[in-house]
Amino acid sequence: MPTQDGPQAAQAAQPAPLPGVKQIIAVGAGKGGVGKSTVSVNLAVGLARAGAKVGLLDGDIYGPSLPTMLGLTGQPAQAQGNVIQPFEVHGIRAMTLGALVEEEKPLIWRGPMAHGAFKQIATQTGWGELDYLIIDLPPGTGDVPLTMSQLLQMTGAVVVCTPQKVAQDDARRAVRMFQTLGVEVLGVVENMSYFIGDDGKEYDIFGKGGAETMAGQMDIPFLGTLPINTVLRHNCDTGDPTANFTGGDKLAEELDALTQAFVRRVEDFLASGGAQQPTISVT
Ligand code: ADP
Hints:
The protein has helices spanning 7-12, 36-49, 66-69, 111-123, 143-151, 165-180, 210-217, 230-237, 242-246, 250-271, and strands at residues 21-28, 54-58, 78-80, 83-85, 87-89, 92-96, 130-136, 156-161, 185-196, 202-203, 222-228. It is of the alpha/beta class.
């Protein structure tokens, strides 16, 4: 079980790199259900398919989605001493609390325990050498992003948002949270941007462009859109993200385009001298 060293412990320490891990990037959202885990998983698999060494950490310690989305159900986690071995699936290394506890067990964490749980899966997983560690955060602005920013030397964060006004409002809060925590917001992804029907027509269900407008207003780079796609939803439900990239259709092109936009943005940010950790003070 996670240890109970509290946020105070992290506050005393400076954020540190994870040995062997080059870039640590969080994926956050203001709200649940906007596709944060979907974007995290597909970004991780897309990066791996492009040749990078990628880890994916399920930071959603309250409602871990990765066992389902990566098809991990029934696979026990292996540990050697204090080190938990990540799952090697779809070309990536993944760790999720969902694989360490019973299915359907409610995950109820007080602040200090949430800190300990996140710290354990982040720092005690045997990630090995990674180009990117993607962290799928819980929705909102709670304990985990705070712990993460105090514990880990982050490259930055990506915010996922659907186009509606209510989603934008919460995404703005997520952006401001990262900025307060000293984590660079590398860009915004607009998920569920529109829907292409069987008739080939584009249906603007949630107000296409809303998240892009929000990103512009907040002066944050826009990384791209993903439409509502039933194949994407099906492959998430059946734990087969690789199939999103091998179907030879528009979905694979859209995911590859998003992955490339992400890589370009990270490279530009690093080239401009980014990822310096400011000294932060959070109350
Ligand atoms: P979050 O992590 O923000 O809570 P999820 O990634 O778990 O959201 O997505 C919520 C649900 O919506 C999942 O069933 C997922 O498969 C589905 N979903 C997400 N993005 C899309 C999309 N672009 N098209 C179709 N279904 C999607």
